[in-house]
Write a structure and sequence with these properties.
Strand order of the largest sheet: 1-2-3-4
Number of strands: 18
Number of helices: 2
Shape: globular
Radius of gyration: 20 Å
């Protein structure tokens, strides 16, 4: 790790720095993603993480990572909890704590020949429960999650999606060839039943004005990085589009969690990383 120089700000010189220590050890590689997910549990004792034995290349649909947590109260002990073959280096497998009720975690994984997710209750013995769709984020009350097609995202933007399972049948859109489909987009997933429904299609997002001035009709679209507001009423997301030469753009949008009242937050600007500050404010 490289040293970091802290610039002096007049009248704000720190007298000491907080203690820092590694909480995982090699030879395997450990990390946590995504930046808008909280790694710590409510007690701040357990830290979620992922572990894999290689670096330096994109993962395939057969490369498995271990999902676990570090017990800060027991010598930083690694507790193995499961595995996933649906992940990337940028976001991992969207490993996250589920709010409300008993201690539960969720992560994305191949379920059969499709990408889905798994929910594990840490306070009761048993295998994780499988859901038919992957999760981007979870509502503040833990009742539902929002989902996208990570295979399409990976086909259009390398490094931000998942490889299709080797056993999955071929489909006309297996590499995201359709420009802006009306049967794919953001899905709402009931975390109790696993039932899902499309609440905002890619085509509907593409139709929201104002359109970016430098986007053209040849670009292929996808929706990504979905986040529910702290009130649970609205969602923010990136509407992305890529050209044939690989260059792409992204605009920040919001809508209700039912896909209504879709609007562009910053017209004309390319926006990337963002998070909700409160129910009415977004930092980006």
């Amino acid at each position: 790790m490289a040293a970091v120089a802290v610039p002096h700000i007049s009248g704000c010189r720190p007298t000491s720095l907080p203690p820092v220590r590694p909480i995982t050890r090699g030879p395997a590689h450990h990390w946590f993603g995504y930046y808008d997910k909280l790694a710590f549990d409510a007690t701040e004792r357990y830290v979620l993480g992922m572990r894999v034995g290689f670096e330096g290349r994109p993962p395939t649909s057969t490369d498995a990572i271990r999902v676990g947590m570090v017990d800060l109260g027991d010598g930083d002990r690694w507790i193995d909890l499961g595995r996933s073959t649906a992940w990337n280096w940028q976001q991992g497998c969207m490993l996250q704590w589920l709010p409300g009720g008993p201690r539960r975690i969720a992560w994305n994984d191949h379920v059969g020949d499709a990408v889905g997710s798994r929910v594990l209750c840490l306070d009761t013995p048993g295998e994780p429960r499988a859901l038919p769709r992957p999760l981007c984020c979870v509502a503040p009350d833990g009742s539902f999650g929002l989902s996208i097609d990570f295979v399409r995202a990976g086909a259009l933007r390398a490094g931000y999606g998942y490889a299709k399972a080797a056993t999955a049948p071929r489909s006309p859109d297996s590499r995201g060839l359709r420009r802006a489909p009306d049967d794919d987009g953001i899905w709402r997933v009931d975390l109790a039943t696993g039932e899902s429904r499309l609440v905002l299609s890619i085509a509907a997002a593409d139709a929201v004005l104002p359109a970016p001035h430098n986007w053209d009709r040849s670009m292929r679209h996808w929706l990504h990085h979905v986040a529910v507001s702290p009130s649970g009423a609205r969602m923010a997301f990136l509407h992305c589009a890529v050209r044939r030469d690989g260059s792409f753009g992204a605009r920040l949008m919001t809508a209700t969690v039912e896909g209504e009242d879709a609007r562009v937050v910053v017209p004309g600007a390319r926006v990337s990383h963002f998070c909700w500050r409160d129910a009415d404010t977004i930092l980006a």
